[in-house]
Design goal:
Layout: H1 12-19, H2 24-41, H3 43-58, H4 62-76, H5 85-99, H6 101-112, H7 122-138, H8 142-147, H9 149-155, H10 158-171, H11 176-183, H12 188-199, H13 207-218, E1 224-227, E2 236-238, E3 241-245, H14 256-273, E4 278-281, H15 285-306, H16 309-315, H17 328-340, H18 349-364, H19 371-385, E5 409-414, H20 419-429, E6 434-435, E7 452-453, E8 462-471, E9 476-486, H21 495-503, H22 505-517, E10 521-529, E11 534-535, H23 537-548, E12 558-566, E13 568-575, H24 591-609, E14 612-620, E15 626-632, H25 641-647, H26 656-667, E16 674-681, H27 693-709, E17 713-719, H28 723-731, E18 736-739, H29 745-758
Parallel strand pairs: 1-3, 4-5, 6-7, 9-15, 13-14, 13-16, 16-17, 17-18
Antiparallel strand pairs: 2-3, 7-8, 8-9, 10-12, 11-12, 14-15
Helix pairs in contact: 2-3, 2-4, 3-5, 4-6, 5-6, 5-7, 6-7, 7-10, 10-12, 13-14, 14-15, 15-17, 15-19, 17-18, 18-19, 22-24, 22-29, 26-27
């Protein structure tokens, strides 16, 4: 609501003085303040100030609030601009109008307590405006915030306070009780969000703008997933996803808009101009890093030809190390700047050669992506001759907006003898979890870890991991939000389950045939052959280089392909929540009994083929108790799982996202060509501590996207009449298979394995 300033064009001070004549003490304070304003800013500014004072007086502010404002002004002057003082009165008027004079007075006194005499007004005004904005949207939240005012402002600056308030309003738009707890720091989420704002620069606030910018420039929108993992220090290309770190510790709030814009548009350049992934072959980590650096420069030059302003955007992030040491990070940072900035002079011979080779190749054919690894091999060899060591694990790409480069390579095309590159392959395939040493510091982990793994203990309810959880209103992950606990299985009588398996003999035969037909083997390239179906480009390039050097080339320039047998790891997650006790189909069986039989049928077929296969049951009793019951580990025989499967009983709720993250953490490190995560559930996430129906659904959808971003195939077998629609919204229609009766199971599994066959 706009400030209601009286309409006098002149004489506002005299008019207010006459109105205050009957209140001598208030009139005296006003007269003293008026003289102070005239002395510092002149009569014209004093008139504007007088109108703002009169507007607050007319809002029934009362003498206590008026005197608090004059006291604040006395602290601000002479260090602040008198022209800004009416803005303080306007913010206070908003507070008084929406939250009342008493709350407005306390707000002013709280802000005044943080102002040094003669100090700058900028932060104080921003804080007062933040409180006024909260009063406009949720006046009931101002008083609880003032109760925790000092603690909050000790953690965040004024922009951080604005973002933290926005989080609270997004979390609890209509729940006054929870909103009051949030702003009073009595809510766990409030403290988590405060910790995030204290050190985080969030992508979510820039997402909508950058979607529009990318679409306008390149014709497509970026698919960005925010990653709360401190191991990820740069963006990462993962298939069609751009994985964005939840925080950049070396980035200020002021730099954030340009940094995120540079990062997103750089990733868009790769999508537009990097037409194929680079073969790893026998390249060493230093050569891989050079390929990524040179390809970054190539795609940025191509984009800058079309949009010259992009060169200025990216160029501002290139710095020069203060010490020009002969280290790989220093050389690479200077080379990156030299390729981006033609006028940059360095004087290093290695950098000069790299720039010359790149400029010549780019001038000849900028669209020829293959010149990048050619140059990388040459200058990488030269770097090796200089005996400069390269720490592949500690290397961080510069400048900070560029991706880490791992997503540019075809990691299935790695020479088995290239052990250094194989270590990077593991990092490229997944986002590593931070391993917490039980004997290390007792200090709390930094917010933003993906998961804190704990030693697996044998006792019931032992904590095995903490995982983040996605909040769809905040569009951000809440770090360490759910606790996963291990509950050992209780063996049950297997007679009934074995009888059902025997009765489903024909079903078992059909599943067996389907599983055997699925193409789950690893395609292997046999390189450097005298004969073969294809040309080995790497070997051919080396042969051409040998010819140019008048050396005898290696004639083994062909390669062939063959499949080396089935190579699959499959993890089944079985929902055993209370909702699985419902009957399904005309036979009267329960959802859980149908699910157990489904797992048993599939498990027998996979075990017969020797596939790597595991199964867990899951349920939840609030976010502090997500219950995982192991049914079969990857290295166990299938027979050991039957008593555990027969002993499961329905209970508790379904926090699906946490179960998916735990399953992903188990499956992602497996060194298999195909890793498949199958959830058997009734498709309805719920828990006792969640009232928002969309919250767990969106979290589960986010967990599925993250799992796929790590290279996993994720499917859902939905059991029950209504399960199909619920699960399809999470897993996607093509990856959801509805089963309402055992007789339909082969058809559903056939559809599932068809997906594996054609992918």
């Amino acid at each position: 609501m706009a400030l209601a300033i009286p309409n006098e064009a002149a004489g506002a001070g005299e008019a207010l003085a006459r109105r205050l004549a009957g209140r001598p003490e208030l009139a005296a304070h006003f007269a003293a303040a008026h003289r102070r304003i005239v002395r510092h800013a002149g009569a014209a500014e004093a008139e504007r100030w007088s109108r703002a004072v009169a507007a607050l007086y007319d809002a029934n502010a009362g003498p206590a609030l008026m005197e608090a404002m004059w006291s604040l002004e006395a602290r601000l002057l002479p260090g602040t601009s008198a022209q800004a003082l009416p803005d303080f009165w306007e913010a206070t008027w908003t507070l008084c109008r929406h939250a009342g004079a008493a709350v407005a007075r306390r707000s002013v006194n709280s802000v005044a307590g943080r102002v040094h005499y003669g100090g700058d007004d900028g932060d104080a005004l921003a804080v007062l405006r933040a409180l006024a904005g909260l009063a406009e949207r949720a006046a009931d939240g101002v008083l609880p915030l003032l109760d925790a005012f000092d603690e909050i402002l000790a953690a965040v600056d004024a922009p951080g306070l604005v973002r933290w308030i926005a989080d609270g309003l997004a979390l609890y738009p209509a729940d006054r009780r929870r909103r009051a707890a949030y702003f009073g720091l009595a809510d766990v989420l409030a403290r988590q969000r405060l910790a995030e704002q204290a050190g985080a620069v969030r992508y979510a606030t820039h997402e909508e703008r950058l979607r529009k910018v990318s679409r306008a420039l390149f014709g497509f929108e970026p698919d960005v997933q925010v990653v709360a993992d401190r191991a990820v220090r740069r963006t990462r290309l993962a298939g069609g996803l751009l994985l964005m770190p939840a925080r950049f510790t070396d980035l200020s709030v002021e730099e954030a808009p340009a940094a995120f814009e540079a990062a997103v548009l750089h990733a868009a350049c790769h999508r537009a101009f990097t037409t194929s992934r680079f073969a790893v072959g026998r390249m060493k980590p230093v050569q891989l890093a050079l390929v990524a650096l040179l390809e970054d420069a190539r795609v940025e030059r191509l984009a800058a030809r079309r949009y010259p302003g992009l060169a200025r955007l990216w160029g501002g992030w290139h710095g020069t190390p203060t010490r020009r040491a002969q280290t790989v990070p220093s050389l690479f940072a200077r080379l990156a700047r030299g390729l981006a900035e033609p006028g940059f002079e360095d004087g290093d011979g290695w950098i000069a050669k790299a720039r010359r080779l790149f400029d010549e190749a780019f001038a000849a054919d900028p669209g020829r992506q293959s010149f990048v690894p050619e140059i990388a091999r040459i200058i990488g060899h030269d770097l090796g001759q200089l005996r400069i060591p390269f720490d592949a694990k500690g290397y961080v790409v510069q400048p900070l907006y560029r991706d880490d480069g791992l997503g540019l390579f075809d990691w299935e095309d790695v020479d088995p003898d290239n052990t250094d590159a194989l270590e990077l392959q593991v990092e490229a395939a997944r986002i590593r979890e931070e391993e917490i040493d039980a004997g290390s510091s007792d200090a709390p982990a930094e917010p933003g870890e993906r998961a804190r793994a704990q030693p697996r203990a044998p006792e019931e309810g032992a904590v095995v991991a903490l995982y983040p959880e996605w909040h769809h209103r905040l569009r951000a992950e809440q770090p360490d939000h759910v606790t996963v606990r291990l509950y050992p299985a209780v063996d049950g009588a297997t007679e009934t389950l074995r009888a059902e398996l025997a009765a489903a003999r024909s079903v078992r035969a059909r599943i067996d045939a389907l599983v055997r037909r699925a193409r789950l083997d690893r395609p292997t390239r046999l390189r450097r052959r005298l004969q073969g179906d294809e040309l080995d480009l790497e070997a051919a390039q080396e042969a051409m280089q040998a010819l140019r050097l008048h050396e005898l080339p290696d004639p083994r320039v062909h390669m062939s392909r063959h499949r080396s047998g089935r190579d699959v790891a499959l993890l089944l997650l079985l929902d055993i929540s209370q909702s699985t006790a419902d009957t399904v189909g005309p036979t009267g069986g329960t959802v859980l009994s149908t699910a157990a039989l489904s797992v048993a049928l599939l498990g027998e077929s996979l075990a017969g083929l020797g596939d790597s296969f595991a199964a867990d049951a899951f349920a939840s009793n609030g976010r502090a108790d997500v219950r995982i019951t192991p049914l079969k580990d990857f290295d166990e025989r299938w027979e050991a799982a039957l008593p555990r499967l027969a002993g499961v009983r329905p209970a508790y709720s379904t926090r699906l996202g946490a179960a998916l993250r735990h399953g992903t953490a188990r499956l992602a490190p497996r060194a298999h060509h195909r890793r498949v995560l199958v959830v058997v559930t009734d498709g309805e996430p719920s828990d006792i501590d969640v009232e928002d129906a969309a919250y767990l659904v969106e979290d589960a959808r986010h967990a599925v996207a993250r799992a796929r971003g790590q290279g996993l195939d994720v499917f859902c077998v939905a059991l029950g009449e209504a399960a199909d629609q619920a699960a399809a919204g999470i897993f996607g229609r093509r990856n959801t298979f509805a089963v309402t009766r055992v007789a339909a199971l082969p058809q559903r599994l056939e559809a599932l394995y068809y997906q594996l066959t054609v992918r």
